[in-house]
TrEMBL record:
GO MF entry, a single one: carbohydrate binding
Source organism (scientific name): Acipenser oxyrinchus oxyrinchus
Record family assignment: Belongs to the tectonin family.
Superkingdom: Eukaryota
Signal peptide coordinates: 1-17
Name this polypeptide is given: Fish-egg lectin-like
Sorted UniProt keywords: Lectin, Signal
Xref: PANTHER family: DYSFERLIN-RELATED, FISH-EGG LECTIN-LIKE ISOFORM X1-RELATED
InterPro entries, sorted: Beta-propeller_rpt_TECPR, Tectonin_beta-prop
Length: 253
């Protein structure tokens, strides 16, 4: 498909300018980490970016994630899968959304908005043959949950935003105390470097500013108007990947 420049550079805040470009393909959800790109389309087909094109993987998922804990996904029956040796292996549990962006741990939410995470040892070693793996149940209820190296962020059914501090590879539950963050988002993603981006109910994209190890909650939100109306975002290595409202794929850098 053609690659077209969608917008001119637009300044955000005082110094950052992003230019968004459409690339080939159509996806409904995307996740990027450490140079890897995975996504799914409206037919639940799974793709990964290879060079300047897309390669379809076997299987069918409604949500896929890539990160330090590997490549995971969930299907329309909320069954959980991990990519092991080029094959999707079913693991124990049920989740509607999953995230592998934490420091070798996995997190997600189920159909009742219960929140779970899996510490590093279990996340890295599971091969699907286990009858039970030690999912940890966190307090509260969220419809979307995403983790980075030192914090996890989530949004609830009312689009309220929460951050969990103190997460580590062996203590993925963190402090177990949610901090409410001003604003409203319908989905949120934390990158491998800790950057936080999200989309609100009006399909507008926002970036959280001031996020750091010493201040995981950050300081404020910046509206990224150049992204247009969008449904999903993911950030890695200086590039914001955006799925537009009509499922076009944009890279913004």
């Amino acid at each position: 498909m053609r690659a077209s420049l969608l917008v001119l550079a637009v300044f955000v805040g005082s110094s950052l300018a992003l230019v968004c470009q459409e690339i080939d393909g159509r996806l409904t959800q995307i996740d990027v980490s450490n140079g890897q790109v995975f996504g799914v389309n409206s037919g639940n087909s799974i793709y990964t970016r290879y060079g300047n094109g897309w390669v379809q993987l076997p299987g069918a998922l409604k949500h896929v994630t890539v990160g330090p804990a590997g490549v995971w996904g969930v299907n329309t029956e909320n069954l959980i899968y991990k990519l092991v040796g080029g094959r999707w292996i079913q693991t124990q549990g049920l989740l509607k959304q999953i995230d592998a962006g934490g420091d070798q741990f996995v997190a997600g939410v189920n159909m009742q908005d219960n929140i779970f995470c899996l510490n590093r040892d279990a996340a890295v070693t599971t091969r699907g043959s286990e009858t039970s793996i030690p999912w940890n149940l966190l307090p509260g209820a969220l419809k979307y949950y995403s983790c980075g190296p030192y914090s996890c962020w989530g949004v609830n059914s009312a689009d309220q935003i929460f951050v969990m501090k103190g997460v580590t590879p062996d203590a993925c539950m963190g402090s177990k105390a949610w901090q409410l963050v001003p604003g409203a988002l319908s989905m949120i993603e934390v990158s491998t470097d800790g950057s936080v981006y999200g989309v609100n109910s009006a399909k507008d994209v926002y970036r959280r500013d001031g996020v750091s190890v010493s201040n995981p909650a950050g300081t404020g939100w910046t509206y990224l108007s150049m992204c247009g109306k969008s449904k999903h975002v993911s950030y890695d290595l200086g590039v914001l990947w955006v799925i537009s409202q009509n499922e076009k794929i944009l890279t913004c850098s």
